[in-house]
Structure formats: structure tokens, C-alpha cells
């Protein structure tokens, strides 16, 4: 077929007579008739349509059993499939749910107890040209399953269409009727009877928060003090050795990379790799089964809760990185695992021809959050993780995809409105990744109150300053002082800015100062994956080197970056292992590296240099905790509030003079930032005014030392150096007092933090 003809075949609906004949194993492209699966007599009572999912409870006469309820809009029939054990050899019994209410198919099955494995088969039309992709040969995961038993592998049988159809441009239109049940995980009935009365949520105010992004498996997999059988699991993260590191560091919250049940992509499995990060969700209520040390027959739920309790007991909040923008079912050529087979048209955004998917995520599909049943799935899931699993907040991957109305991003969208009015969700921490891949999808600074955002403009400005690539320091000034240009509108506060220099996506901090280019060959994609815009500098050699001068410079640059982050106004976010020099050897997209590349190397703490970096990071976090001027709840005014002309924020040149408009536009490698603790907005818990010490931070990115004149009254009469990043080992006590007006020498590529005093 010519390319023009192929394009026409993709774009135009195919008439019934033109539809291709099925291959062997695909009996028909027409809807299946009747229920022809295995069955044994199982009593099914009508049950109730709410709550959705599998709910273990007492029946009308007190008999214990499980109520099953599945929303399947447009379906012709729904079968509940019960399995008598784990693994592909388990016996399946199909039970028809004959009680639809408002498109919810439901039934109560007496005698079905916690631990029961189950799935659904949903009957309906097979007509991909109108978006209908029902196929009862495919066992489907309950979207509300609280636990999942097994792992997703993707043989041809799990695809609703014939995956290997020779004409791939129409392969998605040919229904595959091979049974997928032996090849897919099952949901597990869970009895949720935990009492959270003894759990005390830390409820750390936003302004006091320091977030630590970590991967449950990667953080614990190599920890020598965690028992081998617990490494890589929720129980491993709850272990005193893991919690102890977090306490010594001083962070207030862990942000866990996705822990909702996810599946591995087919292209990774074919290359012998797997999805390590987990941004490929398929079960929005279930803790990812592979991270459970206690097994996958429902016990992972209790293990996750015990992890949350252990962290709460240490005063550490738990924030989940959640992926509600797309699912693991990908596009029209992806597998049929759950939503696609329940109601493809109801759950996903489809293109006008209905056969193809609208993809704002780069992952093949986008959930249609405007639809009530999809919005309900997401908000039900969020509330479940808060009320039943104990978590304290969420970071939303590609959040603007959720904020779209019909097409465009809308900050009054149903999703954002639902969150704002929800009595549970509006009280927890909400963090947006404020972009997606669709038109108009970049919205940093655009989310409404209640929301914090990942501030990528902070990342870029700080990286560029320390590698000498900023044309001037205007942008840096905004970023250091809370990004008021982005967040001061609509009643938002500096804590709306989640400041970060590194994240899971990109170079580690060590790699940021060790590589000019990405090195992703191990991912098997020809080094084409991952960003080319890294804003990194290798300090004179690409990759690891024995050159001690380069090594020393790299460690100094890491100290500069961490110190800048932890002295900035906003909410700082660190990445696990950056505080001790973790490297991915130049891989800036280690999403498929479930190995030493993606795991934290705890042996680094045995190196005196990396241990010193950890101690500096811990010291800076403690300094931030002691001084409210470093974690302000309101933006700086920049105006004098006293007769002496002292302002809450002032900027200085190396000459000791305040920055003029011309200075902001001039190239410079040096910036002085004065933070006054005299008049901090707000009051303490007893209503008293908040006062603090004042500080002068001098950031110098030049490759030669510079003399910096210390500002005189009203700013201060003398200054004491308390942090000097030119030194690997920090002094335990402040340095000698320097009188105002004196010129101090700031070493090359260095941050000095000075305490100001009268």
C-alpha cells in the first residue's frame, strides 16, 4: 500500500466490508455473544452500587462477603471473575453482575473473604472507529482495587487487538480473542480495619518544609544496615536506619516517586529493562506490589501504612508523586489492562475520529478528567490515600493535563475546582508539576492558591549562575527571594515555589558538575532520550577523573548549589543521595535503571569528602530551621519600615553599595543579598512579633577572588562568617568579626553567609 493510501486508511473510518479479516486466535471482530467462560454455582445477591471497588462487609442477613461495584458506562454486560489462587494455573470462576445502577454494575458475593483474587470481563461492541474497544477475552484490573497480586508482563495475549497483525497501521482494529487471564495480575480483596487514632500527622507548615525526593526501592536497596529481606521495600524505608538518615539530615517530608501500582512498558521489557521510576500507573488505589516485603496477597497495604506511621513518628510527612494524567495502557496500540476495556470512550480523551488518542502527556493517552466518572476516580483515590493510608500530600505529575477543560488549560477546570472545595484534599499539601506536552501546557506560576509548584525557573537560573551563563542577575534575584514575579498574585505566598536544583528527572547534583553531555547509552535508545538542555558544567573534564583540582572544584560547586538552595526563600527540595555525592555516571534519564545506577550508594558516606557534604547539608537545614528569616511566610516588601531606612531585603554590589537598575542589567558574577530579621511579617503562636538575626549572603561565581565591601549602618556594624563554601570542612564557630565598611576577600566560586550584628 502506498504511503498516501496508508495515511487515508488511518484517517478515515473503515467500512465493515473493508475491515481486515482476523488472524488465527482472533475469532471475530464482532461483539461476543453470551457468557461462555468457566463457571460454577456461586450465589450473587444484588448488593449496592457504592462504594466502588471490592468492599468486604456483612450482607443483609449478617453473612460476611464482598460487595463488588464497577462503573462501566456503555457496557452490555459485566462478569466478575474469581480466582482460587495465585499464578497462571489458578481456576477461574465467572459470576455475572446483573444489577446495573447508573451504569454501575454491582453484586454481593457471600463467602468471598479478604485475600480473594479477582478481575472483570466487560462485554460490549468492538468498534474502534467509534472508540468502542470492549473485549471480554481480556481480564481487567478493577480501577478501585486496593491491592494487586502479580506483575504486569506484556505478551500478545494482553492486547485487546492483535498486536502482531502484519499491517500495523490497522492492527488496533482487529480484535484478539485469546484469554489474557493467565498473563495479568489480579486485584485482591482487602479488609481495611486499621485505626489511625494513634497516628500523629506532623502537619508541618509549608514555610517550614524541606522536601526530600526519594525512590522507595532505590533509597533502601543497598543500605548496609537494613536487613537484606527488607531492602527495596516499604518496610525498608520504615527501618530505623533509613529513618535515622532522614532525621540526621533534618528534612521534614519525603516525596516518594510513584508507589501506586504501575506496569512496565513493552519496549523496556523487550530490551531486558523495566520501569524503575514508576510513571506508568494502572492501579490508583493499590500500593505497588513489588515494593512489599510482606507479600502481595493484600499485606502490602498494611506494610505501607506501617511505613507511614514510622515516618510520622519521626516527624516526617509523606508526599506521594502521583500520575493521574495517563495510564499504562498507552495509545491505540497499547495493551488492554483496565480502563481501556471497561469504557475506552468514557475514560480517555480521544481525537475527533475516536480511534486515536489525544496525547498531552507523551505517553500515548490522556485521562479525560472533565468526565464525572474520571474525576470521581481521581478524587476518590486521593481521599483514600489521605484518610486510609495516612499520606500528607501529593505531587501531581504533568498537572496541567489534569487542569484542561475541553482542550485548553483552565485554572477554573473541574479538577481544580473539585480539589479546592473538598474538605479532605484542600487541607493536604498539593504540588503541581506545572506543565504538560500539549499546546499552552507550560504554566509555571499559574496555579491557584492552595497549590505549590515545581519552579523550573529557579532551577535554570541557579544552574546558569554557577556555571557562568547568566547575562545578568535580574532573574537570580527573583528566584533567591521567593519568585514574587511568579507567585505574588492571587494571595499566594513564597511557599508556592518549590525550589530545586536537581530532581529525579535529569542529572544528579554530582553529575551536574561532572558532565557537559548526557550519557544514556544504557537505556538502549541510542542516547536520544533525556533532555539536551542540562545547563551543566563538567569543571574541565567529562565524567570521573583522577585530577584532584577538578575534583575539588566539583565539590565546591556542589556546596555552592546546595547552599544557594537552602538559603533561598521558598520550599527547598533535595534529591536522595545528592547530599552525599550520588552519581548516575552521566545518565540524565535513569527511568529504566533498576540497578546501581538508580540506587543510592551508601558507601559514599565512608568518604570524608562526601561525608563533609552531608554534614554541610544537615547544618544548612538546621540553620534554616532556627531562623525564620530564611523561611518567610510572606514576600519581602523591599520598603523601609523604620526611621533608619532599614529594609527587609536589600541587594548589594561588591562595592558595598545598593544595586541600582543599571547594576541589575549589567553582567556580574557577584551578588550580595541582605535579609533583615528585624521586622518579619506575621506573629508566633502566642501572638508575639517574629524577630530574628539578620544575614548577608554573598554569592560569587567568578573564577577569581573578589573584594566585597561590607555594608555599613543601618544594615550592620559588624559581620561574622558562619558559612564559607570554599572550605570543605566548615568551622564550628563563627569567624572573627569584620567591621562594616571593611573589604573582605571572597574566594573564587564561593558562597559566604555572614551574620549581621549591631
UniProtKB/TrEMBL annotation:
Disordered: region residues: 1-44, 177-196, 519-543
Keyword Phosphoprotein listed? The answer is no
In alphabetical order, the GO MF annotations are: amylo-alpha-1,6-glucosidase activity
Gene Ontology annotations of biological process type: glycogen catabolic process
Q: Which UniProt keywords apply?
A: Glycosidase, Hydrolase
Top-rank lineage group of the source organism: Bacteria
Name the InterPro entries for this protein. Answer: GH, GH13_cat_dom, GlgX_Isoamylase_N_E_set, Glyco_hydro_13_N, Glyco_hydro_b, Glycogen_debranch_GlgX, Ig-like_fold, Ig_E-set
Composition bias, Basic and acidic residues? 15-24, 519-535
Query: What Gene3D superfamilies does the record point to?
Result: Glycosidases, Golgi alpha-mannosidase II, Immunoglobulins
- Indicate the family of this protein: Belongs to the glycosyl hydrolase 13 family.
Q: Which PANTHER family match?
A: GLYCOGEN DEBRANCHING ENZYME
Q: What is this protein called?
A: Glycogen debranching protein
The species is Streptomyces nodosus
Amino acid at each position: 500500500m502506498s504511503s498516501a493510501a496508508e495515511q487515508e486508511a488511518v484517517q478515515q473510518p473503515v467500512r465493515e466490508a473493508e475491515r481486515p479479516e482476523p488472524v488465527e486466535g482472533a475469532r471475530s471482530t464482532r461483539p461476543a455473544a453470551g457468557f461462555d467462560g468457566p463457571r460454577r454455582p456461586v450465589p450473587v445477591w444484588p448488593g449496592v452500587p457504592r462504594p466502588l471497588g471490592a468492599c468486604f462487609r456483612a450482607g443483609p442477613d449478617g453473612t460476611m462477603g464482598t460487595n463488588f461495584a464497577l462503573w462501566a458506562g456503555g457496557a452490555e454486560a459485566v462478569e466478575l471473575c474469581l480466582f482460587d489462587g495465585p499464578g497462571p494455573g489458578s481456576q477461574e470462576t465467572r459470576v455475572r453482575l446483573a444489577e446495573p445502577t447508573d451504569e454501575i454494575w454491582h453484586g454481593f458475593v457471600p463467602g468471598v473473604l479478604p485475600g480473594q483474587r479477582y478481575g472483570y470481563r466487560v462485554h460490549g461492541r468492538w468498534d474502534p472507529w467509534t472508540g468502542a474497544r470492549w473485549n471480554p477475552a481480556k481480564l481487567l484490573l478493577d480501577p478501585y482495587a486496593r491491592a494487586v497480586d502479580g506483575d504486569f508482563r506484556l505478551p500478545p495475549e494482553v492486547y485487546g487487538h492483535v498486536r502482531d497483525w502484519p499491517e500495523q497501521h490497522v492492527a488496533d482494529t482487529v480484535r484478539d480473542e485469546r484469554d489474557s487471564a493467565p498473563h495479568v495480575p489480579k486485584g485482591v480483596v482487602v479488609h481495611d480495619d486499621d485505626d489511625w487514632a494513634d497516628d500523629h500527622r506532623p502537619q508541618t507548615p509549608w514555610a517550614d518544609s524541606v522536601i526530600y525526593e526519594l525512590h522507595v526501592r532505590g533509597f533502601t536497596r543497598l543500605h548496609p544496615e537494613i536487613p537484606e529481606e527488607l531492602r527495596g521495600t516499604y518496610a525498608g524505608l520504615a527501618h530505623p536506619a533509613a529513618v535515622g538518615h532522614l532525621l540526621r539530615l533534618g528534612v521534614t517530608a519525603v516525596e516518594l516517586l510513584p508507589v501506586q501500582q504501575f506496569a512496565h512498558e513493552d519496549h523496556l521489557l523487550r530490551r531486558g529493562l523495566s520501569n524503575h521510576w514508576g510513571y506508568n500507573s494502572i492501579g490508583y488505589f493499590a500500593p505497588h506490589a513489588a515494593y512489599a516485603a510482606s507479600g502481595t496477597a493484600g499485606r502490602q497495604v498494611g506494610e505501607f501504612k506501617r511505613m507511614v506511621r514510622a515516618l510520622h513518628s519521626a516527624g516526617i510527612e509523606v508526599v506521594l508523586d502521583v500520575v493521574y494524567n495517563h495510564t499504562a495502557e498507552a495509545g491505540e496500540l497499547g495493551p488492554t489492562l483496565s480502563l481501556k476495556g471497561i469504557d475506552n470512550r468514557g475514560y480517555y480523551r480521544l481525537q475527533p475520529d475516536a480511534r486515536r488518542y489525544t496525547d498531552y502527556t507523551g505517553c500515548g493517552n490522556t485521562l479525560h478528567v472533565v468526565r464525572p466518572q474520571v474525576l470521581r476516580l481521581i478524587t476518590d483515590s486521593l481521599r483514600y490515600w489521605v484518610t486510609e493510608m495516612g499520606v500528607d500530600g501529593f505531587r501531581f505529575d504533568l498537572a496541567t493535563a489534569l487542569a484542561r477543560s475541553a482542550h485548553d488549560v483552565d485554572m477554573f477546570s473541574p479538577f481544580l475546582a473539585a480539589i479546592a472545595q473538598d474538605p479532605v484534599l484542600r487541607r493536604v499539601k498539593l504540588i503541581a508539576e506545572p506543565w504538560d506536552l500539549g499546546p499552552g501546557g507550560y504554566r509555571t506560576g499559574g496555579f491557584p492558591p492552595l497549590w505549590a509548584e515545581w519552579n523550573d525557573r529557579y532551577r535554570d537560573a541557579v544552574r546558569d549562575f554557577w556555571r557562568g551563563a547568566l547575562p545578568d542577575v535580574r532573574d537570580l534575584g527573583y528566584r533567591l527571594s521567593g519568585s514574587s514575579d511568579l507567585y505574588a498574585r492571587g494571595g499566594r505566598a513564597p511557599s508556592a515555589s518549590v525550589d530545586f536544583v536537581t530532581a529525579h528527572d535529569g542529572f544528579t547534583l554530582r553529575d551536574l558538575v561532572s558532565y557537559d553531555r548526557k550519557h544514556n547509552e544504557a537505556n538502549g535508545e541510542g542516547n536520544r532520550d533525556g533532555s539536551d538542555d542540562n545547563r551543566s558544567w563538567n569543571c574541565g573534564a567529562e565524567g570521573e577523573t583522577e585530577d584532584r583540582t577538578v575534583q575539588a572544584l566539583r565539590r565546591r560547586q556542589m556546596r555552592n548549589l546546595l547552599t544557594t538552595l537552602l538559603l533561598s526563600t521558598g520550599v527547598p527540595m533535595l534529591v536522595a543521595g545528592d547530599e552525599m555525592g550520588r552519581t548516575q555516571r552521566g545518565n540524565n534519564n535513569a527511568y529504566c535503571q533498576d540497578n546501581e545506577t538508580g540506587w543510592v550508594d551508601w558507601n559514599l558516606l565512608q568518604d570524608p569528602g562526601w561525608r563533609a557534604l552531608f554534614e554541610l547539608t544537615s547544618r544548612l537545614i538546621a540553620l534554616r530551621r532556627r531562623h525564620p528569616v530564611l523561611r518567610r511566610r510572606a514576600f519581602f516588601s523591599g520598603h523601609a519600615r523604620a526611621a533608619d531606612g532599614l529594609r527587609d531585603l536589600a541587594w548589594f554590589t561588591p562595592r558595598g553599595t545598593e544595586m541600582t537598575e543599571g547594576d541589575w542589567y549589567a553582567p556580574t558574577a557577584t551578588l550580595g543579598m541582605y535579609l533583615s530579621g528585624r521586622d518579619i511579617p506575621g506573629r508566633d503562636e502566642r501572638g508575639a512579633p517574629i524577630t530574628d538575626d539578620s544575614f548577608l549572603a554573598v554569592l560569587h561565581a567568578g573564577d577569581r577572588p573578589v573584594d566585597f565591601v561590607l555594608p555599613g549602618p543601618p544594615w550592620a556594624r559588624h559581620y561574622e562568617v558562619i558559612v564559607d563554601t570554599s572550605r570543605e570542612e566548615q568551622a564550628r564557630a563563627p569567624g572573627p568579626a569584620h567591621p562594616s565598611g571593611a573589604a573582605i576577600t571572597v574566594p573564587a566560586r564561593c558562597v559566604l553567609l555572614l551574620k549581621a550584628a549591631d
